[in-house]
Amino acid sequence: MNDKLLEIEPKRIRLANTPTRGHWLRYGETVGTKIWVKRDDHTGSELSGNKVRKLEYLMAEAVDQGATHVITCGGEQSNHARATAFAATQLGMRSLLILRTDDPTRPPAPTGNILLDRLCGAELQWISRPAWRDRNRLLAEAADRVRAAGGRPYVIPEGGSNALGSWGYIRAMYELASDLEGIAAPDHPVTVVYACGSGGTGAGLILGAKLLGLAKRGIRVAGVNVCDDAAYFVESIGRICADAEERWQLDARVTPDDIVLVDGHVGLGYAKSRPEELETIRDVCRSDGIVLDPVYTGKAFHGIVTELRRDRNRFGSAVAFVHTGGMFGLFASSEITTVL
Ligand SMILES: Cc1ncc(COP(=O)(O)O)c(C=O)c1O
Fold it and tell me: FRET partner for 57 with CA separation of 20 to 30 A, picked from 116, 160, 164, 275?
């Protein structure tokens, strides 16, 4: 990062293997557009994916505050919750995960991320889908319980998506700026495309791109939302960016026009797969030997491919896809076997 930003960068604990590498995908040839991939699925093993970049800042704050317990929430197969549980364990703290499921009285089988949550000793609190609306109150109540028992809680919101967490992808955008040297140019624009679930990754990438003036270098940013819709994310990403700009006096000036979502690829809904999405996961694995997950990266990648089949110049002269991880989610169901 540049010197000015390094001065104001919040404290960070190294948890991720960064910078991550990138490479071209053979799969791009089948759609007639060059696709480059940044391997953020390689940020670690237990702590893999995009969440660990955010946790570097969030956990640094937890440590500074002398936290004994880290509390967060997510869907039943939340990658963020699993990464948080492992980061907490690695740093000598306990973790409490509030997880959403159909019937909290009959929690899901310990597969995929849930298996790992339990393996590392996270305490799990199951809540129903209607109760999810009250997640922030439930997080606060869990924190009260920890305090009442003499502990010191640190609460991380859904997806680690707040102003502090967004620094993870501000930093990643600095990596991307050098990754894309010689690939992107004003007359060869490249779009950095990411899967958008709670907005923190997008907020960081957009802030980073603005701070570095990357539009002038032909680098654009677009998210494929895997839930909700574009209007929802323009609002939520906008809020995270505004918070970060205010808190660290960042001269990014993000406007709604900077927040680009490629909407229309949610399909059957969050964490629900259509056969064609599973086929794309299979085909990318067979052409390039990389594994996408059904909830985020597979769905987003299928969205990119669908757009490119309509217009192969949709994202400029190349796509730079951020592979944000999530592989453990693939092991939560045998659905992928239907396309093998
Ligand atoms: C594998 C993976 N990719 C992408 C995302 C989306 O990131 P964000 O929540 O920052 O929008 C998530 C989490 O939600 C994830 O687990």
Answer: 116
